[in-house]
Structure to design on (185 residues):
């Protein structure tokens, strides 16, 4: 296995992931540096070794910060965070779309005095966005699935848990809790 295929899952000091979406991962270089600087503790390791002329160590696969990092209460208003809040689906036709096929729509169009805020922007597919245009929802009978809202960082993290990444190393499974059904014992 190449070193590039060995990122470390980063946990906060309370052993919860710093982020679920995107998953908080550090490269092997960042991880080794943090270990040597004493900023993290190693929780799990890969079988892969790294060596220098004077030492060797197993690459960490799970690390936790020694100092707790509080989560931001109010996430940034970004296109990605709007898509995440809306579960990556059009709020008009309810279709899931790849991120590059999604847009955001002003429920009250800017041309009608609407502002670019959490409470006025929803995720829309290109088709629905063009169909709605600069009209009000009542004029075209296109209403968002729910009233747009400002999410907390906690809410975005909870939503992000529903979208596990393509790769999960087995040593991470005890620290990640995805919205998947557990096997009966």
């Amino acid at each position: 296995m190449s070193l590039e295929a060995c990122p470390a899952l980063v946990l906060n000091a309370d052993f919860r992931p710093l982020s679920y979406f995107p998953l908080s991962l550090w490269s092997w270089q960042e991880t080794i540096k943090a270990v040597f600087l004493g900023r993290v503790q190693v929780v799990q390791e890969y079988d892969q070794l790294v060596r220098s002329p004077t030492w060797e160590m197993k690459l960490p696969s799970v690390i936790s910060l020694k100092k707790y990092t509080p989560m931001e209460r109010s996430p940034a208003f970004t296109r990605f965070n709007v898509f995440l809040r809306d579960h990556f689906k059009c709020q008009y036709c309810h279709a899931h779309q790849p991120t590059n096929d999604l847009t955001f729509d002003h429920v009250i169009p800017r041309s009608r005095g609407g502002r670019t805020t959490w409470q006025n922007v929803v995720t829309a597919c290109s088709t629905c966005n063009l169909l709605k245009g600069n009209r009000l929802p009542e004029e075209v009978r296109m209403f968002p699935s729910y009233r747009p809202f400002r999410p907390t960082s906690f809410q975005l993290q909870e939503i992000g848990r529903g979208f596990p990444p393509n790769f999960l190393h087995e040593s991470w499974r005890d620290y990640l809790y995805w919205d998947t059904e557990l096997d009966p014992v």
Q: What stands out?
A: The domain at 71-162 is CATH 1.10.30.50 (DNA Binding (I), subunit A). Strands lie at 8-11, 25-26, 40-51, 56-65, 102-106, 121-125.
